[in-house]
Amino acid sequence: MTGERLPRRTGKDLQLRAIREILRATVEALPLDEILSVIANMAIIVFDASTSWLMVKEDARLRTVVSRGELADALTGRECAVGRGSAGAAATRESPTILEPGDVDPADVVIGGLAGNAKPVVLLPLRAGDRSLGLLGCVVPPDATRDVSFLLILAEQAATAVETAELREESRTWRQRLDAVFEQMSELVLVFDREGRLALMNSSAAQVLGQTGVHLGDSIADLVTKAGLYSADGRQLSPEETAIARALRGERVESAEERLQRPGGMTRYFLVSGVPLFTDRRMEGAVVVWRDISELRRAEQFRDEYLSLVSHDLRSPLTTVMGMGDWLRRMLERKGLKKEASSAQAIVTSAQRMNAMIQDLVDTVRLESGYIEMHKQPTDLVQLVSDLVGRVGTVQDRARIKVEAPEPLTQVPVDPDRIERAIVNLLTNALKYSAPDTPVVIRLARRNGDAIISVTDQGIGIPPEDLPHLFERFYSPRAGLKAEGLGLGLYITRLIVEAHGGRVWAESQVGKGSTFYIALPIA
Ligand code: ADP
Fold it and tell me: Does the predicted model carry a pTM greater than 0.85?
């Protein structure tokens, strides 16, 4: 009943909608060339076209991929530039182009072969938004050009199919790229599912963990026992403590240290990062990345052993040399053997210098590796400077030093021991590189929220070309001549000051003298 009362147009709309649905199902299920064949065939069977063909755009060219019907051969393998010829131009338009029999140019690279034919040709663009993807062409009965809505549906479905194929290809390419990255990463990558089972691992992980009997499907507890998972401080981890379990509880884990330790095997050290994996806001599992830092750890161990060897084992015999040398000097002096006594003094001085060099080397390594922490505390810098001046060099040296402090500098947050070392380095240089009868001035001042400590001498000065390099490691322009230090003193000063957020610099004039500055933030 209802059906009969529907106007004719609505009936046709329903039909078209039904066809659209059938086509949509086809488009979703089949590979592209098969879908395009179905569409070309439908144009012939349903729309009564005598010939139909589909062209797809690739790199600004249109190429025929399917042709069906009477004149199919004339269209096989045809191609043209987008925008060129009847087909190329029609592909760029928004609406269909209808060519009456006389309108077809026999010289047209694509449709030239249809010129002798007495039927009209309809060219429909395949579009996705404002992008042109190709063309559907049909040779149709003369009266069929009045209503091409069915062909429009075919073109629309063909466009969807082409677009879907493009997207599929794109996602396949991406997948391949990601797979390659995943597989080639030197880091161990492990993916766990929501239940905490190992779902995926890359080849680096399989290589390391495979040896321990870990395999896909294992639980975190399996992994902990099979691989021997330990904390940074050498405790066997409980499954709940691992970065994996933490990530599965929704935590973002960054650079947790874990170790693989198996009886009789070498310990391997890892920095582990982990994140929960979400799809559409649902947690699907977690991924953890293990970076092998075993080399680094071993290098650090070596450095620490080396440091303690240098700072203790190498220095204790030196202490004996210094002590015995001094005892010898005093004894020789007492016996009135002046020449011999000064030779003994030379032993002491050399041993002291060597001791200072060792100290510089050890301090440099410690400061560079962040080994030394700055214990900042509110400090009276004027007091600190006055105290240290009483301890440097010889009595004659101390007589040359003048402290100028026009304003108090209390409560400056510094590590007093380290800052003292930084200032002493400047002071000993100033004394060393100037004549014994010239003054050395330490000035303390406040400028733009900084405490400024400067050390001025009237010594030999520094050539302009050396000035920018003074604070570099091992920079010692006159080292060969005087065999003074190792060129580490100013470098150490810089490391200490920079660890306080401060700056160091120098001004100098050859033959006139130098001023070295330390600026330390007060707040
Ligand atoms: P070192 O421990 O060898 O003295 P430093 O880092 O303390 O090394 O100094 C590096 C170089 O800078 C010195 O060798 C010297 O040439 C130059 N220098 C440092 N302070 C002064 C100064 N007050 N006057 C002239 N030259 C200086």
Answer: no
